[in-house]
Design brief:
Elements: E1 2-6, H1 17-31, E2 35-41, E3 53-54, E4 57-62, H2 71-86, E5 90-94, H3 102-107, E6 112-116, H4 128-144, E7 147-150, H5 153-163, E8 169-170, H6 185-189, E9 197-201, H7 210-218, E10 227-231, H8 239-250, E11 254-257, H9 261-269, E12 273-276, H10 285-292, E13 296-300, E14 315-316, H11 321-333, H12 348-362
Parallel strand pairs: 1-2, 1-5, 2-4, 5-6, 6-7, 7-8, 9-10, 9-12, 10-11, 12-13, 13-14
Antiparallel strand pairs: 3-4
Helix pairs in contact: 1-12, 7-11
Length: 363
């Protein structure tokens, strides 16, 4: 089966939840017999990842302007044209912004599976026009896709209630079981000690809530020698990301920048607590990753974060800095150094087979 993938910035080692999703999923689909081509946005291709194949997945770089309001739709339209030339069995479109290109793809005779990773129009970085276009993308996705995949029941409910799309396919995000790091060289270079820091991870956008996290951390009275570390960076440098970096520097918070591979493995392995203060998520891969490392977690109480194996003590009221501070204090006062979570539903091999079944439904 020949599959062309549109909507991701690209793989490998490109920041983002959709990108991590694609990096894990598509090599597994290749392993079970699919011929997969991912269209990458040219503005994210660096000398380090300027390759034509990754773990059996073909990579084609397609022009995209490095401007957050234009890159997704411009890139997606070009990708549909190129996909038509490749004559795939299925085009798989990720996220609701690129969903705007789905009617065009159907008009060209392509069969489309789309994945809704969450209502991106809730993100604070978008202006009124962008939010309108994202809602239109979601409408196009719901009405014109041959099949729709959702990564959480919350998203399935949105599509059913808003668009009457009742036949969505629930396929979770996944997480691989890691081989934990045995070194501390990287964290030592940051001035950290093993099991003596609190970790947050994500893009530097307002809905991730890192500004609330820094404020809450400052209000923690007894830090017991712990440091706060935030791993990640902005895709597009803006006023918020600049303010966040300045705030972190003023308050002695360690920023690692965007990290993957061995560095990310080491920083997860040696963390004591993972905090996710987001106001918006689909199904957060970073949280699943932290759980796979057996780290204690503290997350905002938004529906997308309410994974069944978490307990009431793992949640704080979203946007409530005082409650976040109180919950961090409680966690580090009685830190759990090794937690076991049920991650059975988030197995990437199972997810690959479920995705293949959705492709077969289209055909």
């Amino acid at each position: 089966m020949k599959v062309v993938v549109i909507g991701t910035r690209g793989i490998p080692n490109i920041q983002g939840g959709v990108e991590t999703h694609c990096e894990e999923l598509y090599p597994r689909l290749v392993d079970i017999g699919c011929d997969v081509t991912i269209m990458r946005r040219s503005c994210y291709v660096t000398p380090d990842n300027q390759i034509s194949m990754f773990r059996g997945v073909n990579l084609i770089d397609v022009y995209a302007p490095h401007k957050k309001s234009l890159e997704a739709i411009v890139h997606s339209i070009w990708c549909v044209v190129k996909a038509r030339m490749l004559n795939p069995d299925v085009v798989h479109v990720h996220a609701i912004g690129p969903g705007l290109c789905i009617p065009f793809a159907r008009l060209l005779g392509l069969k489309v599976v789309s994945t809704n990773h969450g209502p991106d129009y809730d993100r604070k970085k978008w202006g009124k026009l962008a939010k309108t276009m994202l809602r239109l993308g979601e409408w196009c996705q719901a009405h014109f896709s041959n099949e729709v995949i959702v990564i959480s029941r919350v998203i399935a409910d949105i599509l059913r209630e808003n668009y009457g799309r009742c036949d969505t396919n629930l396929v979770f995000n996944g997480v691989p079981m890691p081989k934990k790091s045995t070194t501390c060289d990287y964290i030592s270079s940051l001035g950290l000690q093993e099991k003596k820091y609190v970790l947050a991870l994500g893009r530097f956008v307002e809905e991730k809530g890192f500004h609330h996290l820094i404020e809450a951390w400052n209000n923690v009275k007894e830090k017991n020698g712990y440091r706060l570390v935030i791993a990640g960076d902005a895709d597009h440098e803006d006023d918020y990301s600049r303010r966040l970096k300045a705030l972190a520097n003023e308050n002695n918070v360690i920023l690692t920048g965007f990290i993957k591979g061995d560095k990310l493995n080491e920083i997860f392995t040696n963390a004591s607590l993972f905090v996710l203060p987001s106001s918006h998520e689909g199904l957060p891969i970073s949280l699943l990753e932290a759980m796979s490392y057996n780290i204690d977690v503290l997350v905002s109480d938004i529906p997308a974060n309410k994974i069944p194996s978490l307990s009431i003590e793992d949640f704080f009221r979203c946007g409530d800095v005082a409650d976040l501070s109180k919950c961090i204090q409680s966690k580090i006062d009685k830190i759990q150094m090794f937690r076991i979570y049920d991650l059975t539903p988030y197995n990437w091999d199972v997810i690959a087979r479920q995705t293949l079944e959705v492709y077969k439904k289209v055909l």
